[in-house]
Amino acid sequence: MRYLMTIAYDGSHYSGYQKQPRMVTIQGELEKVLTKINSEKKVTVSASGRTDAGVHAYGQRAHFDLKKDWDLYKLQGSLNSLLPKDIYVRRIEKVADDFHARFDVQAKEYIYKLNMGEYNPLEKDYVYQYNEPLKVVEMERALKYLEGTHNFQSFTKADEEKEDYVRTILETRIVRDKKDINQITISITGSGFLRYMVRNIVGFLIEVGEGKRKSQDILTVLEAQDRTQAGITAPACGLYLNQVFY
Amino acid sequence: MRYLMTIAYDGSHYSGYQKQPRMVTIQGELEKVLTKINSEKKVTVSASGRTDAGVHAYGQRAHFDLKKDWDLYKLQGSLNSLLPKDIYVRRIEKVADDFHARFDVQAKEYIYKLNMGEYNPLEKDYVYQYNEPLKVVEMERALKYLEGTHNFQSFTKADEEKEDYVRTILETRIVRDKKDINQITISITGSGFLRYMVRNIVGFLIEVGEGKRKSQDILTVLEAQDRTQAGITAPACGLYLNQVFY
Fold first, then answer.
1. Is A117 at the interface with chain B, CB within 8 A?
2. The pTM is what?
3. Residue A84 in contact with residue A18, Cβ under 8 Å?
4. Least Cα separation, residue B121 to chain A (angstroms)
5. How many residue pairs bridge chain A and chain B with CB atoms within 8 Å of each other?
6. How far apart are CA A67 and CA A61, in angstroms?
7. A153 Cβ contact list (under 8 Å, min separation 6)
8. Is A81 on the interface with B (CB under 8 A)?
9. Cβ–Cβ gap B122/A126 under 8 Å
10. pLDDT tens for chain A, residues 1 to 246
């Protein structure tokens, strides 16, 4: 029986999503708990993709197989009672045996939270505290150039070797918080993402917001297909995997 | 020279505001840093009042004395560069030598954040995750009965011995978040508060919201002047010292 779960987690205290020896990871915690409720028979969890250390999720998705045909409500309750308080299973559904949480992804939405106002010690792990005003309209203009299909080699991890750096961005926007106009959320929905891609795009947008680059410079950077052209990598704490679409 | 500072802090990892031997406290961190910039001559910090372990602040106020006539911007910068990232000095001003951050308080506003929706692992230390619907209109009705001057012995710490349990509540309200109607913020402004008073009031309001008590029952509980009449103490993580008025 194959199950698909939707997971929210606070990535602050984890060495990323993916299991690694001697590290505390989201996948490691999920597999430990699932193996426990599976009478200690090893369960493997396959997520839609990894998230790096310090990155959060509201809507990560992952599948796993159990022999038993569980009542979904009971299964969810059992998992949540055993998981650490900073990982939460929001929903579980049954899926076909050939469903795959990574290979079947249609699109993903990442959001990036940035505070242009006063430093807030209560959000140090949850928002990038830039703490200075930025030209948000210019940033959104630059972001819009990314919609469509492009080679994103300039925006991936410098030493990332891939056969194919072409990805399609379906939708982008920047939303200002209604209560606090200094809080912005950058949203990027795409059919796929390269490693560090969102954080490197945000790093570039910040340089646009600072007036160091023009919005249309993003086209030159894309064309260069060279990581050194794009600029900084924005910190992990502002990034959230918000939704995965199948 | 007497200085008054406005401080925000994340109380999650502290044993409360007030200094205690062998405990990590907000006051302890502030005094350590101030003593350091005062050439290691001991500086004492006097706050508007203590906050308990796990309670947060956006607008705690505290005064201290330094021999040197500091540039305020520089002083603020020095403190923030030395303080842990979960304590932040938002503002410093100079005040008269006889000003006292505790004795001169005119009023304080506490807010209490409660989530009636789905559990959110990203806010586990910042909101009371009740995760069930509550009758908010009834809760607000009960809260409104508290405005004015009353004996609050039923709402303080059970073993708290005080000469005077009479306090004046100036303003109360419950606000629903516009983006997420399951998030409510209870605000109570008063001339003074007893220990655990806000958390015990919130505990009572929750019982009203659950339908276990009627809103007007709060009058009977006030009259009883007996802690055992009021009910539970709401958890610390939802409570914030929001503002202090002089």
1. no
2. 0.93
3. no
4. 5
5. 47
6. 20
7. A162, A165, A194, A225, A226, A227
8. no
9. yes
10. 999 999 999 999 999 999 999 999 999 999 999 999 999 999 999 999 999 999 999 999 999 999 999 999 999 999 999 999 999 999 999 999 999 999 999 999 999 999 999 999 999 999 999 999 999 999 999 999 999 999 999 999 877 777 899 999 999 999 999 889 999 999 999 999 999 999 999 999 999 999 999 999 999 999 989 888 888 999 999 999 999 999
The span from the CA of A37 to the CA of A28, in Å, is 15
**A121 CA: distance to closest CA in chain B (Å):** 5
pLDDT in tens, B90-116: 999 999 999 999 999 999 999 999 999
Instruction: Provide the pLDDT for residue A29.
Output: 98
Task: Show Cβ contacts of residue B52 under 8 Å, excluding neighbours closer than 6 positions.
Answer: B16, B17, B195, B196, B236, B239
Which chain B residues in 157-186 lie under 8 Å from chain A, judged by CB atoms?
Answer: 178-179
Q: What is the CA radius of gyration of chain B?
A: 19
Which residue on chain B is closest to A85 by alpha carbon? B121
Name chain B contacts of A80, Cβ cutoff 8 Å: 119
Q: Does A56 touch chain B (CB under 8 A)?
A: yes
For the stretch A233-243, what's the b/e string if a residue is b when 16 or more beta carbons lie within 10 angstroms of its beta carbon? bbbbbbbbbbb
Nearest CB to A178; choose among B9, B126, B178: B178
Quick one: closest CA in B to A83, which residue?
B121
Tell me the chain A residues in contact with residue B88 when contact means C-beta distances shorter than 8 Å: 119-121
Residue A244 to residue A106: CA distance in whole angstroms: 8
| Integer Cα distance of A70 and A151 in angstroms | 44
Q: CB-based burial of residue B177 (10 Å sphere; 0-12 exposed, 13-18 middle, 19+ buried)?
A: middle
CA distance B30 to B109: 22
Contact list, A85 vs chain B (CB under 8 Å): 121, 124
- Give the catalytic positions of B in this structure: 52
Which domains, and CATH codes, for chain A? 2-95 (3.30.70.580), 107-245 (3.30.70.660)
- For residue B108, the SS3 value is strand
How far is residue A32 CA from its own chain's centroid?
23
Q: What is the DSSP letter of A123?
A: G
CB pair distance less than 8 Å for A87 and B122: no
